[in-house]
Amino acid sequence: MLLSRFIIYSQLISGCSPIDGPKKRCNKTSKLWRTRNMAETLDAKKEEADYKRVHSFPLIRHTDMPEEMRVETMELCVTACEKFSTNNESAAKMIKESMDKKFGSSWHVVIGEGFGFEVTHEVKNLLYMFFGGSLAVCVWKCS
Questions:
Q1: In this predicted model, what pLDDT tens digit does every residue of 35-45 receive, in sequence order?
Q2: Which fold, 3-13+58-141?
Q3: Pairing of strands 116-122, 3-9
Q4: Rounded to two decimals, what is the model's pTM?
């Protein structure tokens, strides 16, 4: 059995918050400041939604899988991330269980934003991709 080593660092790919820290305000301008703050927050949410809409396609960062396995795994990851958009743990569980059934046991899945990892994996059994802009998915087999 051939093993390979893969090291990568995922970076959060999102815009800055409209509020970088606590801001002081006096009572006379607090209502005006809240109105501006709400407008900035709404603009930031709209920009984030637009960013996710533009980047909703899967972006493969690294893979050594055969074409057929890569396409199936990528579609499975997209389906799981869309189905469990607020629960990465459930999405990872769905991907792992499906991969174990389709391609044999010992698959591992990591889903999240802003993480680093180093894994040893079987050759031709690794997929590292982004989905929805900043959500990274890493799937590998190691027995």
A1: 555 666 767 77
A2: Protein Inhibitor Of Neuronal Nitric Oxide Synthase (3.30.740)
A3: antiparallel
A4: 0.64
